Fold each of these.
Amino acid sequence: MEAFRVSGASPAVGDGAIATNISAAADLTAADTRGAWARPRLRVRYPFTRRTPLLIRVAYDPRSLATRRTIVDKRPLYWVAGLILLAIVPLLGSNALLSSSTVFAMYAAINIVWILVVGTAGIWSLATLAIVGVGAYGSAYLSITYGLPWWGMIAIGPVFGLICGIIIAIPAIRLEGWYYALLTVGLAELCRVYAVQSQALGSSEGGLYGAATFIPNGVSQRTGLVISFFAAFVLMLAALALYRVVNGQRLGRLLRAAPEKQEAFAEALGVNYRAARIRVFLISSAALGLIGGFYATYFTGASPSLFSMDNMMLLLAMITIGGIGTTGGAVVGTLIVVLLDQVFVELGPLRLIIVAAIMLASVLFTRGGLFGVATQFSTWRSRRKSERRAQRSERGGEVMPDEATEIRDKQTIYVRRFDETVRKHLRPLVTDEVIAEHKRNPSGPHSDTLERLLNYFRRAAITDKYGILAVKSFAEYRVIALSGRRGVPPRVVDDKVYATPDEAQHAVFLRRVQDLMQS
Amino acid sequence: MKEVLQVQGLSAGYGPLTVLHRINLTVYSGERVGLIGLNGHGKSTLLRAIAGLTDWQSGSIQLKGREIGGTRSQSAGRNTHRIVRMGLSLMPQGDALFYGLTVVDHLNSGAFTRSTWRERAARRERVLEIFPPLRKLLAAPVGKLSGGERRMVSLGRGLMADASLYLIDEPSLGLAPSISKSLIAVLCQIDLKEGAMLIAEQNLSMLEGKVSRLLGIHAGVLKGGADALSAASLNGFASAAR
Amino acid sequence: MQIDPYYVIVTAAMLASIYGLLAIGISIIWSSLGLINMAHGLIFALAGYGAWAAAQYLSAYGPVVLVAGIIAGALVGMLIGVLAFLPLYDKPNYVLRSLIATLAISLLGQQFMLTAFGPRSRPLPPVFGRASFHFGTAVVSAGQLGAIVTSWLVLALIAAWARHSRRGLEIRAMMRNPEGAALVGIGLRSTAMAVMAVTGGLAGLAAVLLSQTYFVSPFSGLTPLLKGMIVALAGGLGSIPGAIIAAVLVGLIEALTAVSIGGQFVLITQFLFIIIVLLIRPRGIAGIIETVRE
């Protein structure tokens, strides 16, 4: 509260700063009244953090003086509504829809974890599905050979994932960026070739089948499907929670301090971004291994197609279409691709073409997938607007293309535009007669034309406004320009000295006319 | 006198930053113009804006009467090669060399336009006469050269072109005073024919008396206008700015 | 088991020449355009079909097939340039977006080939005749010998062209410093298309040469892409001598692995090789042989 008061009380220069301070002050008074008079309200916070689920801003309406509560960030609401919808809709549909939804939830979980690797850690690994595959193969193998139960498979998955992650992470220590992406593609292919050719991993049957399943014996098909759907849904929620914890807490913040190309800077500040990256990578590898274990119990086995390039491409299409780097993008992109893939089954290979075409289009035309379209459109619009504005006033008093985005107070732009229009109308009024009239009779009465000009000059901004300095009364006058800042004396414009105030006034008039014609 | 370069109301900058504020500048043929200003006041940005390399710019730039400016807010450098082919030669700060290529490759690449490519051997001879130390280094990769030699390669590459406007950005930067003095002396003796030369420099004493006129640039605004500033007032300006 | 050194040498030389052609393409594209071309395998496969179509409908005469493959490769390369480079190169996040774009293009192209030509593999007519020669204890077919000779010849031609022609200087300059290239009047877009055409042509040549021993199929691009990537990475992206040395080494490793411990371990040993190289020298073999750096 003390800090608030100080910042609210200190007057700041600049329009934007004043505006924000006013709202801060309004927040302060609102909080004060609430503390003193209103009933204490329940504050919900996430455990162990000071975060509230919804950020609500309280502000006074300047006209009616009523308190207004606005939700600053509505995304949590959208998330809750979307997730509830996702949990309910499959239950109403057919069996096919249920099993598609299970696949969707599983892929969404994989993608969310992958976003952690790609977005948070900034490691371009394309071996995500390979880690899932290793987890699936490992747990399926143990289950088939040693009779591991389904919970054991899910528990052992992270171990395989972690081992695989450590192996893949070794080159990541040395390799930067894109080299690494290429390497991981090869590693996935290596896994595929091994899985296809190895006898122990069921090369003859085209996969490893017969692992334990978590669906109890004797339940109906529908019940089994519902159970597996909710299991996958919980998996997705767990992935979201993991993302939240890793990305929103210390590791994520460390890594956000060291974005690409500024790593050296972060390192100089003591951010050990390499260790943080590897840690995020290993955490997500373990999570992917767990998803792999789940995959193996759900499908009661694993097949080499897990490692195939096509599947990896589908996964990449999901996160690309939704927008790389956001969980929302990952979930929505997964939804779109799974819908295309499962609903239009009768289209055959054509649907892969559709997916690839959408992926190509989204990467060519959008910067951040579907989720970035809105911001991209608004930046595009503001750029076009400011470009047009700059063209309209190629030499006028208006604003430059990028200056326009800087000026937060739109009024400044409009004032400048109005000023430019006024000057455009005034310029033709300046004629030799008007100047002669002013020379004859500087202090009026004036003709209408001259009066218009003078009125415009009089209301010029105080900065750089001309004035007359009486060096010696009735003998010596000079033209000065005001600094516009308190404590900074005006400067003398030139070394001409005028004998009478009238002469000096006319000199000022001439200067102003000259400025008007030149602007 | 013919105008080689006519800049009117040029504003330019990087991202949200406006570096140049409505610059007006005319350079006539046969002129050597010195552009004096401190670090960060827009010398390089002015030269880069003329070559179309800034993030955004607005205002008119005419090279030999043909418009190369205009308003744009993206695609930096997309038109640079076209502007260069119209007769501009920019020797940038930091040299923009092709590391790994040899000195002779650099000189050849300077004569890239179709007409000059044919007579590249003769042009190379001319450049080597201007910078004799390069003659022994022709086959050496530029990564092995010293700073002064690299600057010579960069300048030589720029001089290989058949340009009507040479923009030279800080020829003395990072060089020992004696070397930079002789470099500038060499630059000021080159036969410009119909062309003109604009040299940006921090150090007034380097250019004083060697160029046809001097312009000051301060906080993105040209000081000095069309008529030449007296060296004394520029000195005062420079020391006041310091 | 007895390892036949002559057989190993022949196989290694054959593989090295094919891999070299692909890896140099990938390497040049990366260093001059900053584009990781995941669709290089697509160029390979489509060029194979181009050559096959020429043999089917035009003439099965060797040089015709060879030239058809090269032209088809160049055209596909330029198409990829138009789709993935021109719209993106001055946009934010260029490297990532172009990488994904080339991946999408390769998926698109693969499915297109699958629907247009079917999954069946197609053989190419022999370009170099059917004769065979004895080299020590090994038998060398005309296809293998022709592939080795042609690819090294073409590589030498390309190297000479890059060193002495105006276009070559243009590409070399752009590989080192795109802004400097613009400052001497080199247009990025036209040069990029030239690069894509040349590297596409190299991939097309590789496709025809390899198809002398293998077949053309929609999925025939993936393995060459991977091997090309391995070689380009091990050689150091952007270095032509590095890529050639790496191609020879990788070819040798593949031949040795295949005769000693079996074909399924080829990828594993190659990956071990590349990981070891990159762990020692993150810039690949180029980091060892090149003395001048940026």
Note: The radius of gyration of chain C is 19 Å.
Amino acid sequence: MSARSYESVEFGEDLPEVEPDVGMENVKRFCRSAMMYGPRFTDHEKAKKEGLPSAIVPGIMSQGLLGAIIHNWAPGCTIKSIDTVFRAPLSVDSKPTCRAVVTDKDDDTHSIEIDLTIVNEAGETRVLGTAKVEL
Amino acid sequence: MGMTAAELKERFGDTVFDSVEVEARGEDMVEFALACGETDPCFTDSSHPDFQAPANFATKYHGARMLPSDFPKFDPARMIDAGKAIEIHAPIRPDTKLTAKSHLHDIYEKTGRSGLMVFLVHRMEFTDESDELKAYVDWRLILRGGLQ
């Protein structure tokens, strides 16, 4: 059961912004757990040789960061789906911000829809998506 | 002239072309959750009575094949990763053996400023030992220029 009740959530409500840890050590930790051993995720120089600006955060880690801000906002909620578009690479060791806003409420199922974005320091959207969540 | 999206869908749609077995290990679930910033002990503490994998854990798995073996050949440089979606049907518990079956769930085309694009939706269906559906993971791929 969610610590956040369906009734207490407002349409248009912003979830607290989060600056996730996408430092190299944490990305390496993620990669080990996800069995992603490509150097493009864990080595800046090798990533540059592949034509990337730096090592990049795995797309599914970005998706996981967005899932976590939902869980941390409404502990006990159930994420039914997350759909993400990896619009542009997110650099390892950068300082991105995760944002989320409630964009729909369904009174019949007590579920909500949340729009999700990750922006870089320049304010450019790198990842965007939508989640459906039951409270 | 290559095949159209409709022809591809008719020939390849909804046919399982790959099946793999994977194990969802508890320690990987904890590390995955912590790296993503989860704080709820049901994701980060393997001794929690409701311990389970974080929402998108199944996205980490890959099959043995991305496309059917007889799918028409194309230049891989024309393929773009257009995103990933997960639909969760039941929690994944630690040390569960999962079967992941892959099929092309949808194939469609759009024409934009840069020309024709064929979208391939690769779906992996995850079930456990008792055949309970755990999740669908959809990987959207764009083939720029279609099949020339």
Note: Chain A has a mean pLDDT of 96.
